[in-house]
């Protein structure tokens, strides 16, 4: 068959085949890992690269089917709280625009819209066929007036496949004490915080100007959820809770500093409508593998909590701050990762005098929509060294997770603003 390409075009095609960088339409087709894998430690066969440096505290991120990356900044940078990054060569990207004057955490692309949250509201932007926002200066306000009192104020978001939006409203308290985080202060009866915080609210994704009264209190008893994702295999919402702090500081006669560093677990919960995970009345002890009555409500470190509260689906080391959750559905990674969960642990601040922990991305295997088997560290050394982990002075802190259209795993860093991309390149 005769080839109708000109000689220059044939040369371009040959170069594309040789180097795997561009098709004839100049679209990037190959991802090249950095020589040092962006400083990360990964399983054999995986590579990593720095996609871009945003210079802002990059919280959650999302990638459109066309490959555009949208990053939510904790605080607006140069008046822009959302950054748009377009692919360039070798799998990298560059910041091409910014919009949204508000800071925050949540961002999620689905069904032709980009959803983003401030600490009080949720907006949506229309995406065109190129995955580009068409109304950057005039988003639709989907939800407004969510409670924000300067503690656990981020509003993480995710959508299901039935047009529902889920929003975390974190508790503005550690353990619902009469005097927050004060030594010996007991818990408020019935915890009034739970009226408007400490759980997940469900709203319609296409209805404007919704408030608490328009939404459904989907789940309660959750101190603070930053990482959450919809598990399509189980058709269920999963969330990662930040466990309570300062058991020794508040009740020094009941808990040693070591116990305070190791308790309670950071927990993964599988939620259904009406679920109650039990905060502030309990915490989960990963050693005893039991729900323990909180000392603010009469516990002594041994008494069990009421069995009516939801059991965690899985548990992880204390105070490691799980800020990102992603169920992997791509085909780039080996089969063992399919439908399993990646969790980004931002890292601890409150384990002293014990060493700090975290600053890694772990993988939790799943089978038939449920955790199956032990978790493992997948991507490590975001902190830069073991010494920086122990001291809590990490160079980078993994926060958000997103899956690219090719199955790459993207990780954001809310310390320095680095965006990472992890690929599998072993055949």
Give a verbal description of the structure.
- 7% of the residues lie in helices and 35% in strands.
- The chain is mainly beta and 427 residues long.
- The strands form eight sheets. Strands 10-11-12-13-17 form a five-stranded mixed beta sheet, with no helix packed on it. Strands 1-29-28-27 form a four-stranded antiparallel beta sheet, with no helix packed on it. The chain has a four-stranded antiparallel beta sheet with strand order 2-3-4-5, with no helix packed on it.
- A hairpin with a 4-residue loop joins strand 7 and strand 8.
- The longest helix has 13 residues.
What structural keywords apply?
427 residues; mainly beta; five-stranded mixed sheet; four-stranded antiparallel sheet; 4 helices; 7% helix; globular; disordered N terminus
What's the gist of this structure?
This protein is mainly beta and 427 residues long.
| Proportion of strand residues | 35-45%
- State the distance separating the first and last CA atoms: 32 Å
On the 0 to 100 scale, the average pLDDT is 93
Major sheet size, sense and barrel closure:
5 strands, mixed
Kindly state the number of beta strands. Answer: 29
| Uncertain parts | 1-27
Helix content: under 10%
Query: Could you say which overall geometry the principal axes of the C-alpha atoms support?
Result: globular
* Class inferred from helices and paired strands: mainly beta
Strand order of the largest sheet: 10-11-12-13-17
**How would you describe the oligomerization state of the chains in this entry?**
single chain
Q: Measured on Cα atoms, how large is the radius of gyration? A: 22 Å
What is the count of DSSP helices, taking H or I runs of 4+ residues? 4
């Amino acid at each position: 068959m005769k080839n109708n390409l000109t000689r220059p075009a044939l040369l371009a095609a040959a170069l594309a085949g040789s180097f795997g960088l561009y098709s004839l339409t100049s679209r990037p087709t190959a991802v090249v890992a950095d020589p040092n894998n962006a400083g990360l430690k990964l399983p054999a066969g995986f590579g990593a690269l720095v996609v871009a440096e945003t210079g802002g505290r990059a919280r959650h991120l999302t990638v459109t089917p066309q490959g555009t990356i949208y990053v939510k900044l904790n605080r607006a940078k140069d008046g822009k709280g959302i950054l748009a990054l377009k692919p360039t060569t070798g799998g990298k990207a560059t910041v091409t625009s910014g919009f949204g004057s508000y800071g925050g955490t949540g961002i999620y692309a689905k069904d032709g819209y980009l959803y983003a949250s401030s600490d009080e509201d949720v907006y949506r932007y229309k995406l065109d066929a190129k995955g580009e926002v068409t109304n950057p200066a005039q988003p639709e306000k989907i939800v407004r007036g969510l409670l924000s009192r300067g503690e656990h104020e981020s509003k993480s978001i995710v959508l299901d496949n039935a047009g529902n939006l889920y929003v975390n409203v974190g508790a503005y308290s550690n353990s619902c004490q009469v005097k927050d985080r004060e030594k010996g202060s007991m818990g408020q009866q019935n915890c009034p915080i739970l009226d408007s915080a400490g759980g997940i609210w469900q709203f319609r994704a296409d209805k404007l100007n919704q408030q608490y009264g328009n939404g459904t209190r989907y789940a309660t008893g959750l101190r603070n959820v930053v990482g959450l994702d919809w598990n399509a295999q189980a058709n269920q919402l999963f969330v990662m809770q930040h466990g309570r702090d300062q058991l020794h500081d508040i009740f020094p006669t009941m808990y040693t500093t070591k116990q305070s560093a190791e308790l309670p677990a950071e927990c993964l919960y599988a939620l259904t409508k009406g679920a109650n995970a039990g905060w502030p009345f309990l915490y989960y002890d990963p050693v005893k593998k039991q729900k323990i009555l909180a000392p603010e409500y009469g516990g002594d470190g041994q008494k069990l909590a009421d069995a009516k509260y939801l059991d965690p689906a899985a548990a992880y080391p204390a105070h490691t701050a799980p800020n990102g959750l992603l169920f992997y559905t791509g085909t780039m990674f080996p089969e063992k990762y399919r439908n399993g969960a990646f969790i980004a642990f931002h890292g601890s601040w409150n384990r002293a005098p014990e060493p700090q922990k975290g600053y890694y991305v772990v993988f939790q295997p799943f089978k038939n929509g449920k955790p199956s088997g032990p978790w493992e560290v997948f991507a490590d050394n975001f902190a830069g060294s073991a010494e920086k982990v122990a001291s809590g002075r990490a160079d980078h802190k993994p926060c958000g997770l997103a899956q690219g259209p090719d199955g790459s795993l993207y990780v954001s860093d809310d310390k320095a603003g680095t965006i990472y991309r992890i690929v599998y390149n072993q055949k």
